[in-house]
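In response to a reviewer's request, we include the raw inputs and outputs for one of the modeled complexes. The three entities were modeled together in a single run.
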Amino acid sequence: MCKPYIQAWDGCNHYAHKPKAPEKCGKETCLGPKGFVHDDAGSWKTNSTDYNIEKSSGKCSDCVEREKKPDLYVTPKPGRKRNAPGDGNPFARTTRATAASQRSQRNAAAARSAVPDVYREMLREARAEVVAQGPSSSSDRPLKRKRPGEKKIPNAAAAPKEEEPPMSAARSGVDDGNDDDGDIGFEDVVLPPATVQTMVMPSDDDDDDDEALFEDVEIHRGVTSAVPAASESRELTLNLTAQEALMAPRRSADRRKNLSKEAKERRVEIHKMHLLCLLSHVELRNQWCNDQKVQDLLRPLLSEKMTKFLNPRASLTQYGQAESLKSGIHEASIMFKTKFKITERGLRRALWAEDEEQLKNYQLPDDIESAHEKQDFIEAAKTLSGSRDVGAQLFCALLRSAGVETRLVCSLQPLACVPGGPTLPKQQPKIDTPSKPSKGEIYAAAMAKYETKGPDPGATPSPRRRLGHPLAAAYHVPSMTAPVPSPSRPETPQVKRIRGESPYPIYWVEVLDRAYQKWHPVDALVTGTQWKPRALEPPASDRENCMTYVVAFEADGSARDVTRRYAKAYNSKTKRLRIDGIRTGGTAGSGLSGERWWRRAMRKYARPWPTDLDQIEKTELAAEEAKEPMPRNVADFKDHPVYALERHLRRNEVLVPGAQTTGTVGAGSKAPLERIYRRRDVRIARSREKWYRMGREVKPGEEPVVILPKRTPKRGGFNDYNDDNEDNDDDELLDKGDLFGDSAAAAAGTPIYTEDQTDLYQAPPVRNGRVPKNKFGNIDLYVPSMVPAGGAHVAHERAAQAAYVLGVDYAPALTGFQFKGRQGTAVLHGVVVPAECEEGVWAVIGGLTDLDAEMERERRARRAVRMWSRFLKGLRIRERIWAGAVEGEEEGKREGEDGEGKGKGNMIDDGGDEDVDMAGVASDVSEEYFMGEDEEGGGFLIE
DNA sequence: TTTATCGAAG
DNA sequence: AATCATTCGATAAA
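The model returned the following structure tokens for the whole complex.
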């Protein structure tokens, strides 16, 4: 009963509101959910957290606040058992997804660091490259993009596209509507080769592609990487992973130093790629669930009664309908559970390897799911056997066949994008940890716990099976259930139960309760629960199953991220494991932020027009997020979207003066209790210079909210090491190298101010046609609002020239700095001129441009003429020579006629070709031809 | 009581 | 500044 996770009860998520002491789990030492006590001061508190209670309402300040926003408040379901594993507190936040993907980190990395244009160029090249090699990979036929046509992806389209299933087409590329960042240009996205490849989506009847897709996924399902490579994408994965074992090099400091940054990026890249693979996988399975053959096979399983329950008459009351559906589902899942045999291993969590050896010796379990193609799936429907994943999919098909709106839900199990997670199990318990041999055994024991008895030859596949790996035999191969040499295991291969699978599902189903317009989870095979979203999240210690991304696919192919419905601590725990939750370092220019990436990835699956139901669900999920209880340990407060601790404030962050405490938390049991604040009361403070660069100016008389101590210069010469990268946008950039205040601030530290203490910067106005300038003769124009009164920004490269021509006063606009190395270089963009001159300047610019064009035309014309004359000259020479040599017929005549021209030709002939022989002429001409610019096609003007 | 897990430390 | 490895202590489970 005492769950490792935060326990929640209905309604209010605050301990303070719990009407009475929580039930105990039966252990005398258990105080209820994680030590729940009532103190003398009149507030409830847990061992580490308590809440301020308002006397008048008896509620904590947190809740009072929340009640002011009724839309976020969800009425508790009546009669819910508090400790019921299935539900409870929720909370969740609205993150959405996005995605692109990647693979060649080469390209991605390069793209990241490059300036925009270059970046785009490279992107284009990368795409071209993909196109070139893409099709050759796993399939001979042209790759298909999974989602056809995003409108914004013209370039990406380089890859051959094919029509995809109609439903996909319908929703492709349409903006979500409620999504705020819908306008991101596609060009901003890193869309490396892998994307194209990964996103290959087989059409329904295309077996080949199905296979390819499956294989892709297969790689990841096991443990990333170690699959003998057949396709390029596999190879890629293998290389990336094995090349530097990402988790491993913790030992030596130097290795860490060199690898950490790169390894981090790589981890993220792989994570993304893996996610896309998994999404494709689920999407495909979801399509299979729609298959008529499958549904026809399954439909007979439902009794009439069940079908009736599943389709309640609309004449029933809301409640009646809901209950009917519920019992129908119940019956159906019981039935299904008894009829379906789990004979294979389903998806499981992918883990990083710690070193290459593990990869070399890794092999997939023997009993891995065998449904590679739809035909297999149909077969599984006939025999009602397969992995639990296939089971859930068939169950989904079953319900759909009965007319129930059903979603296929999958908890994606990608490789972690953050360090620190579990790694591949050491394979040889005895050997693995020399220092503590016991550990291996412990591990084995732990694994054994999961294993449901039984001979499982599958779990311990023979190492030798791995084709031709030279080391396979030599290396100790391991099985998770170490002690048993699997192959020799005499035990009866009886009921093949899947050993070692997590007691929580990877795949399950959601059904729509039409009456209440609500989706409810149903897991028939693994936990056998329904209507209990909270029952499906595995504990954090589960190595086989980690709930990080839960994606629900509807029959029409659209999908939605419903993680918040299932994760008990989305904000404080789950989010940290997600691509959209990790601090992808504010490092500017590092491509898409995780959040945008994921949003983008999921948008591909979004419905073009959100329905009312979508809206309702969105609200519901947001409400769940809002209801998430406070973390009870200090670590979870770090970077928490709602709460903040003083101890975690960054050096430039500061609490707003009136910040309210919403509770306290103590580290451990004995604690100086620390106050908990709301994140929204945290402000970022900046130095004067920094504000200035944002177009703001500290008001006169404001006291700095804090003075940043001077940076302790690292001894040992030029430290750098971590200096160059980490300065993300906010803050640090400024105190460091800048033209301003270096000297002033140096002495006592940098005073910093909050935004409230600043006003919009008013640049000195333009007077009498004079534009104010700084000491470098420029004008600072970091943001548009910094344009001085009476001035106008003419953002054109020739503006300066134009202004000069006009004779008006102007100042080049300093719009920012480009930091490469540690030196900032000023970026000038256009000029500022007196407003009244703006039009004139633009006009002149237009004129200059025209002039340029004209001059260019002339130049080309001149060159062309010159070339022609040279050519003619050559012809004449040639003619003359031939005239002399052949001495004949018509030649003579012609020569006579051309006498004048001949002379001219000779005179021109100072260009340098003295050779007057045939060959000389010829070569001369051709040389000229080639040397000419492309534009002059051998003397012809190309307009 | 012992053991495994998790959080805090710094 | 932040991550990482390690230790220690509290707690939950056996």
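As requested, we also summarize the result in words. Chain A has six domains: 1-89, 105-578+592-613, 630-683, 685-711+733-760, 779-846, 856-941. Residues 336 and 524 of chain A are 7 Å apart (CA to CA).
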